[in-house]
Prepilin leader peptidase/N-methyltransferase (Yersinia similis), 302 residues
Amino acid sequence: MDIFRVRLYSLSKPLWIIEINMMGIHDYFVGYLIIGAVVGSFLNVLIYRLPITLANCSPQYELHGQEVGISSHLKSINLFQPGSFCPHCNESIPIKYNIPILGWIFLRGVSRCCNKKISIRYLFIEILAVIQTLLVLMIFQEDLLICTSLVLIWTLTALAFIDFDTYLLPDCMTIPLLWLGLLINIDTLFTPLSSAVLGAVSGYLFLWLSYWLFKIVRGVDGMGYGDFKLMAALGAWFGVSAVPFLILFSSLFGIVAYAVFYLFDRKENGKEINHIAFGPYISFAGILYLFIGSHVTNLFFQ
């Protein structure tokens, strides 16, 4: 019973850290809000434009099993050009309506150029980035740990929404994330380097073997290779001991999501939903593990 109490106490430590760090974050609260909102605005750009930019690199690009052409007005798009434009009529958006969070509120979710609804997801992602930024700053204290954690959590957020929209986890994001995980752990920031290497290998191999087992039994693809690379990247960040929990968390999130889609949203554009993207749930598992993973691991391995 005493051991159990100690373990429960270890799980509660992040709450104490938040209480302590709130004193330090208060002086720069507005600045952190602005940083989070600006990053959230960039994430919206990245989520929308990166798949289009990748598709423009070849005449036809494969998204969720179908060859999808790119319309003419998007042929020249990249992450930085042209400036922000209405997704419905392609009119440029004035700067005053392009302010993160406030722009959507000023417009009340309706574009001024064509009076069509602007997805509330833009506002959601910007607010989410603010919350993520504040959580990282409240929980972690070391500068390097804060910076790397923010890079990880923002990247995972972008990957989650890109995969949800397109069934695509771009190599240009997952591979650098894997190498960055190995690089930062040279000095054991999250885990020893040896554990990071084993985590990357085991994370990739587990999903790769699961993929081939499912394909042999069912004759169809159960997931994509991007999922293997994303799990390998998280294994590189958190180490081999984190992989079982990352797989468990992501699987549970995926099962719950599939049940929700099956019960409440069985059709998409008039077609049955036969599969869901797994990348968002791997990303959610990585974000959850960033905040509580070390305490969960200690609880089970002590």
Observations:
- The beta strands are 61-63, 66-68, 267-268, 271-272.
- The two ends are 14 Å apart (CA to CA).
- The chain has two domains: 14-139, 168-302.
- The mean pLDDT is 82.
